[in-house]
Amino acid sequence: MGKLRIVFMGTPDFAVASLSKLVESGYAPVGVITAPDRPAGRGRKLQESAIKKYAKQHNIRILQPTNLKSPSFLAELKSLHANLQVVVAFRMLPKVVWDMPEYGTFNLHASLLPQYRGAAPINWAIINGETETGVTTFFLDEKIDTGEIILQEKVIIKETDTAGALHDILMLLGADLVLKTIQQIEDHSVKRQKQSSSQNLKKAPKIHKETCKIDWDKPILEIYNHIRGLSPYPAAWSTLINDTATMPVKIYSVALERKDHSHKNGQILFDKKEIRVAVPGGFVQLLEMQLSGKRKMQAQEILNGLKLSKTAYMA
Fold it and tell me: What is 6-186's CATH number, 3.40.50.170, 3.30.10.20, 1.10.10.1800, 3.40.1000.20?
């Protein structure tokens, strides 16, 4: 095999760990493909992706196509003469792109495929109360996350892990797996394994606003998993009804108190330091949250500035 000429495709921080690992290991890509700059923040200034910032610092050629099938982009991609493409947290590729290099295109996915195919595998693994997950590298094919598996690495999900904590663990684990996959492709030791077509597959669809709404009638552990599976982003939310005022509140961190009680689900109980919400099987203590238009705050800070009524509840 000749020298690998790698094109790397990715956009967020999650992908930077893998690109950095390649560069540090001597596999400097001949090009990086990332999302176009997008307006963000209050000033709506154009923001570069995390991958673009890294590529600029390391003088790697950058392509930012809006259309992956456009003749001008395809011509530019072909001119890089890549023989391998690596995809980490990018977008679905058309066949004309993933089928271009001699050694194929592989993707890093943050689950143990075939479980949790889709856009949000880290969130859904925690929301569903899984005790283990991992990372998978696989060759791309026509469908989403269905290609032949190359390598997998498992990790335990701790009861206290949030989506943010698990993201960081899988980001580093995934970077190592990407490097290992490239080394196997380079020395012809790659083994391909077809994915199971079992009917008992859990999916990881995109998270929408309604997905994030807390249902206070669910069992206590399901509520806990829901909140930590969406923390810190996009964040679980509820509506606080305080006398006649209603306000949305994002909830980032909670503790559980398993206890029999006779309160209605969603009822708020509080003292000078704590805010608790009654749920089936006990109480959810709200530790860190954010009222609309405010910064994230601990419960005591919120109690200092918000007068809660005895009839306040979450809906």
Answer: 3.40.50.170
Long-range pairs of 67-71 with CB within 8 A, sequence gap ≥ 24: 68/93, 68/94, 68/97, 69/94, 69/96, 69/97
Closest CA to 46 of 56, 36, 58: 36
pLDDT at position 2 is 62
pLDDT for 49-102, tens place per residue?
999 999 999 999 999 999 999 999 999 999 999 999 999 999 999 999 999 999
Per-residue pLDDT tens over the stretch 13-57? 999 999 999 999 999 999 999 999 998 877 888 999 999 999 999
* Pairwise CA distance, residues 27 & 5, whole Å: 8
| 138 has pLDDT over 90 | yes
Cβ proximity of 251 and 223 under 8 Å: no
CB 302 within 8 A of CB 276: no
**CATH code for the domain defined by 210-314:** 3.10.25.10
The pLDDT of 152-167, averaged and rounded, is 98
